User: What shape does this take?
Amino acid sequence: MTSRRILALAGLMLTGSMISTLPALAQQSAPPPAADRRGPPPDGRRGPPTVDARVQRMTADLGLSAEQATRVRTLLTAERREADSLLADRARRQDAERAAMMTMRTGTEKSLSAILTSDQRLKHDAMRARGGEGRGGRDGRGPGRGGNGRRHGGDRNRR
Assistant: This one.
């Protein structure tokens, strides 16, 4: 036999063995129960588990009695309420800070406009429209963080 025939025969045998194992692979055991799986839950809900889910998991894993499960549920419910309150407070603070920053920025823009000539104001407005003022981009967070990629945000003539 020539080497080509041997290779062709080996290829056919390999293909045949792969095809014959497909039904066996399809009948393998079921995936592990949802409690053992990682990743997003099957219902698509993201975020921390609910109090009930935590109690169920602890009951299953630790063998909690009914009285222990009730006490754990009470404790975890209080924790959830406190966490929700803290998150709401943080959101209110962030909103207030954002409003204060916008007020400050508006005042600065008005003062700056009073300093510039009409031609300079037009140029300044054009710079702002394309993300200028040397702040590293349209969002003003600096180079490499969502800006336009230029260190001085479009002011190419500046040295």
